[in-house]
Write a structure and sequence with these properties.
The complex is a heterodimer of chains A (about 500) and B (about 475).
Chain A (H helix, E strand, L loop, with lengths): L8 H9 L5 H14 L6 E4 L1 H16 L10 E5 L26 H8 L3 E6 L38 H8 L5 E6 L5 H7 L2 E4 L19 E6 L2 H11 L29 E5 L9 H16 L3 E5 L7 H16 L17 H12 L2 H14 L5 H21 L5 E5 L15 H5 L6 H6 L3 E8 L5 E8 L4 H15 L11
Parallel strand pairs in A: 2-3, 2-4, 7-8, 7-9
Antiparallel strand pairs in A: 1-3, 4-6, 5-6, 5-10, 9-11, 10-11
Chain B lengths: L4 E4 L2 E14 L38 H13 L7 E2 L2 E4 L9 E4 L9 E5 L7 E12 L3 E3 L8 E3 L6 E7 L6 H18 L11 E10 L9 E6 L2 H20 L7 E6 L4 E7 L9 E2 L6 E2 L2 H9 L5 H12 L3 H8 L2 H11 L4 H19 L10 H12 L5 H14 L3 H8 L7 H14 L1 H8 L6 H11 L6 H13 L1
Parallel strand pairs in B: 12-13
Antiparallel strand pairs in B: 1-2, 2-10, 2-11, 3-16, 4-5, 4-15, 6-7, 7-10, 8-9, 11-12, 13-14
The chains are: A alpha/beta (about 500), B alpha+beta (about 475).
Chain lengths: ~500, ~475
């Protein structure tokens, strides 16, 4: 870690404008760090040539006094975003060699605003996972270690490469996508901030689809302010995504520091799940105390259908995934395993191209949509989803935001929970309800576990009220003053 | 009623037929992508990343295709559903890049409507339309390029189709043909589908079952993708007879999908019920429900052109045409417009006769559509005017018309060129009559002794002598006088 890689995006922005250092130096510092931190496996593809070219353009603009909002800021891009001419894998063997001829809207927005691409970050295959263990390109190691041992830990998932890269100071920020917690949970595990915007806030065009009604791009960074800066560039209406919403993009950064005085914040009683570690419960109480101290008022609220959220999610998401992943058939791009008939080619290609977790979800999804089971599973899940959304809608009649833990535990070690998919799915218990309701949520690092690992608190807001989420997240951040750094940082 | 029954070995059977028509929407761009739709382009040149189902691509509805579907629904007198939903129909096939077709399943854009079908010799029937929905077409698999591999052309992938489903109201192949012709006529009137079955822009699946008259519906078979009206009729006829023979031999009809082999004139199993796909329909999460503005729909309704049924009624009332003639003339908008241009200010029945007999006959012979008729409506009108003012006779008019078809010149020019102006000069006609009577003294005597049938013979002789140009009325009158002595 150098002085440059340790800066926040806001600090780097100021330093670049003041010409204290160049975009080239900033990019190079990160590229050097990436080379040293390859053990983490945070990046699937490093793009130094693109980074240096973009940095050169940024330096020219900075020199000309023509800086754009993210001028020269080096970012990691989750390898689920299609990047024109750059390998895009979705963490899967089945997309071998796939170089899109188009750019995702979100990354195009970032380049429009002057950001610099360091590379494509590792992820769970097709964003299906909470550990980054399902990637065809191998697991990502968290830069964090337990006090009690040297076991390699997971960074969380599915945006595990993005989270690890930001935590390890080999990206100032990164894009993620969140379907059931894939931004917020790895942010919590990795001691950084992750913001899942409202469904429809950021375009999904050019993002490899997992579950279309849930997928939402968002930023990961080391501060709430940095996430706010990134979101402003990423967000916006896209006529190319029919589910993107045409509503103005506010100056999210301005919400940072606005304080929580007068805000009413809800604590859902149903989130006190069995078996939750005491230290997480304690951190949650601490979060309440911090915000109360800053003038927020608290109320216990009820979200009665919370316990159905996880099973609902694990029907809806695989159902959509089973259909979204049908296009990977070996006919037009990516992996093809020849067969003696078209059906055999499909079977061999998909068997070889998809890992076990993806195959499991495709099979679950196919099952819940099939004739005779649709009503019992998919339709029922859609009905319950509507009830869950109604729960939060009525809660938001009385509160401005909801405070919960982000995940029920700290990061676990590589290999743990791998033999029990349901234990793995339980990681998403606190993040999935906001996903099902399409609501914005942020995870802010709020403390360390007894074993020295980061723990996050989550703030959920009303639809398209990212500003309150950011305000509240910033207040938590300030109170928590989380300044711990992972000891596995590149030297 | 019995003419529509099929006689089996054990008694009469009734056919029950329902048709599903896939009509390609006339539109510059595809249903969910901006790619172009022109027929006959080089393979894979009209394909966007959306059509090829590249990763991360998303569909965006083409508003014009929605408008076309709503117009069609309105023209079928159907209910327009202001909220409809796009679903995914999931199955694997190389010409279906996404592995699903975006279609409408439970909530189509258009609900129940009707089509009236007309016959020459029996009353019209009203056939129910169950629904119309929008969906994507698939690409084309090409199996004849490489002996070892199939190729795929995605130009058609994603083109908008309207699937128009009838109630099982049709009872004969003839009715099925009348239904298809009427539907095609309506689609062409409003410009939502060109109706070209050879190019595949109109395709038909037929559901066929048989039953004893008045009994409950039998088990149906679906015959897929028949590409001409004649073949649809033959396929239905064959399929109904096959089912009757099967049942009469003690068998039962299995619900299945069948193919029509036009070369052999028979249907055969494509896939059985057990092999039927489980399409796993569910609402497409990439698309919001399609919500239409009621005022916008009313605007489209108000802007609809006069449709075939209304035009037919008007032709009967305004021009005094028979139901059959009016029905023939309104079948195609161009023909109806042509007719009206000819009939305006002229005798409408003579105009109808000339358009339906002479013009249609000539077009048939030269293999042209009325849209590129060698004789324009104005030119045909000019010909009728020459007849009406006595310049030429009806007989000459037919010759002039033949010359018009051949040369594209107008009637007056041909008449002048060939010196075909009718002779009404009594002196010239009398002279010709005298000449013929002198030459045919024997026959004149026979006529005068009572063999009046010979009158026609004299008319013919005089006409021939005058090169057909004699005014028939003057000729008749003068000849009658002279023969009478």
């Amino acid at each position: 870690m150098t002085a440059l890689t340790g800066l926040s995006i806001a600090e780097a922005r100021d330093g670049l404008k003041a010409r204290r250092f160049s975009a080239h130096e900033l990019a190079q510092a990160h590229l050097d760090g990436m080379a040293k931190a390859r053990r983490l496996n945070a990046y699937i593809t490093e793009t130094p040539a693109i980074a240096l070219r973009q940095a050169a353009e940024s330096d020219a603009r900075l020199k000309a006094g023509d800086a754009r909002p993210l001028e020269g800021i080096p970012l990691g891009i989750k390898d689920l975003f299609c990047t024109k001419g750059t390998l895009t894998t979705a963490g899967s063997h089945i997309l071998d060699g796939f170089k899109p001829t188009y750019e995702s809207t979100v990354t195009a927005n970032l380049w429009r605003d002057g950001a610099v691409m360091l590379g494509k970050t590792n992820l769970d295959e097709f964003a299906m996972g909470s550990s980054n263990m399902t990637s065809h390109h191998g697991p990502v190691l968290s830069p964090w270690r337990r006090r009690s041992g040297n076991a390699d830990l997971v960074p969380g998932g599915s945006s595990g490469g993005s989270a690890a890269a930001v935590a390890a100071r080999i990206a100032m920020g990164a894009t993620g996508t969140d379907t059931g917690g894939s931004i917020r949970q790895p942010a919590a595990f990795s001691g950084i901030v992750g913001l899942k915007p409202t469904y429809g806030r950021c375009s999904r065009l050019g993002v490899v689809a997992f579950a279309s009604s849930l997928d939402q791009p968002g930023p990961l960074a080391r501060s709430v302010r940095d996430c706010a800066i990134l979101l402003r560039s990423m967000a916006g209406h896209d006529p190319g995504d029919s589910t993107s919403v045409d509503t103005p993009v506010p100056d999210y950064e301005a919400a940072v520091g606005r304080g929580v005085k007068g805000l009413r914040i809800g604590v859902p009683k149903e989130y006190r799940v069995d078996g939750m570690p005491g230290e997480i419960e304690a951190l949650w109480q601490q979060g309440v105390a911090w915000l109360e101290a800053q003038g927020a008022t608290f109320a216990e609220i009820s979200l009665p259908h919370t316990r159905y959220a996880l099973p609902t999610y694990y029907i809806v998401a695989p159902a959509e995934a089973s259909s979204n992943l049908a296009r990977y058939d070996g006919v037009r791009y990516g992996l093809r395993v020849a067969g003696s008939s078209i059906d055999e080619m499909y079977e061999l290609t998909r068997a070889a191209g998809f890992g076990p977790e993806v195959r499991r979800r495709v099979m679950i999804g196919t099952y819940v949509l099939s004739a005779g089971y649709y009503d019992a599973y998919y339709r029922k899940a859609q009905q319950v989803r509507a009830l869950i959304a109604r729960d939060s809608a009525s809660a938001f009649e009385t509160v401005d935001a909801i405070l919960t833990p982000t995940a029920p535990s700290a990061a676990f070690a590589i290999g743990e929970k791998m033999d029990d998919p349901v234990a793995m799915y339980l990681n998403d218990v606190f993040t999935v309800p906001a996903s099902l309701s399409g609501l914005p949520g942020i995870s802010v690092p709020a403390g360390l576990s007894g074993d020295g690992l980061p723990l996050g608190l989550q703030v959920i807001g009303k639809a398209f009220d990212e500003e309150t989420v950011i305000r509240t997240g910033a207040a938590l951040e300030e109170a928590a003053a989380f300044n711990h750094k992972p000891d596995g940082l590149a030297a | 009623m019995s003419e529509h029954l099929l006689e089996g070995a054990t008694g009469p059977w009734e056919m029950v037929i329902g048709l599903e028509v896939h009509a390609q929407v006339i539109s510059q761009a595809k249903l969910f992508s901006g790619a172009a739709t022109a027929f006959g382009s080089e393979p894979n040149t009209q394909v966007s990343p959306v059509d090829a189902a590249m990763p991360g691509m998303l569909p965006v509805i083409n508003r014009f295709c929605v408008e076309q579907a709503v117009k069609t629904g309105l023209a079928l007198g159907a209910r327009i559903n202001l909220t409809s939903i796009f679903d995914r129909k999931n199955y694997f096939y190389p010409d279906l890049p996404a592995g699903y077709q975006i279609s409408q399943y439970k909530n189509p854009i258009v609900g129940a409507g009707t089509i009236q079908i007309d016959f020459k010799d029996r009353p019209s029937r009203t056939i129910g339309i169950t629904r119309l929905h929008l969906e994507q077409d698939a690409g084309k698999s090409l199996h004849d390029i490489d002996p070892k591999a199939s190729h795929v052309d995605l130009n058609r992938a994603g083109v908008a189709l309207m699937e128009i489903v009838s109630e099982p109201d049709l009872r004969t192949p003839e009715e099925a043909g009348a239904y298809l012709r009427k539907l095609r006529s309506i689609l062409r009137y409003i410009g939502t589908c060109d109706g070209n079955m050879e190019e595949g822009s109109l395709r038909c699946d037929a559901n066929v079952s048989v039953r004893r008259p008045g009994a409950a519906f039998g088990t149906r078979c679906e015959i897929k993708n028949v590409n001409s009206i004649r073949y649809v009729q033959r396929a239905i006829e064959y399929e109904a007879r096959r089912q009757i023979e099967l049942i009469e031999a003690g068998g039962t009809v299995d619900q299945e999908t069948r193919l029509f082999d036009a070369a052999k004139g028979e249907t055969r199993t494509m896939r059985s019920k057990e092999e039927a796909h489980d399409y796993r329909y569910f609402p497409d999460p990439d698309l919001l429900p399609l919500v239409l503005d009621a005022a916008w729909v009313e605007g489209l309704r108000a802007a609809l052109p006069e449709l075939p049924d209304a035009k037919k009624a008007r032709f009967m009332a305004e021009y005094g045409l028979s139901a059959y003639d009016a029905g023939v003339l309104v079948g195609e908008q161009v023909a109806a417009d042509f007719y009206e241009a000819v009939a305006r200010g002229r005798d409408p029945k003579i105009a109808a006769n000339w358009v339906m007999v002479e013009l249609f006959g000539a077009l048939n012979r030269v293999g042209k559509d009325i849209a590129d008729s060698p004789v324009s409506a104005a030119a045909l009108g000019g010909l009728l005017d020459l007849m009406a003012d006595g310049t030429i006779s009806g007989r000459i008019a037919k010759d002039v018309f033949a010359a018009m078809v051949e040369t594209g010149k107008d009637a007056r020019a041909i008449v002048a060129e060939k010196g075909l102006v009718q002779v009404t000069d009594t002196g010239a006609i009398e002279a010709a009559i005298d000449k013929v009577m002198a030459a045919e003294a024997q026959k004149v005597a026979e006529y005068r002794s009572g063999k009046e049938k010979l009158f026609g013979y004299f008319v013919g002789q005089v006409m021939r002598a005058m090169g057909g140009k004699a005014n028939p009325a003057v000729l008749n009158e003068t000849l009658k006088k002279k023969l009478a002595g």
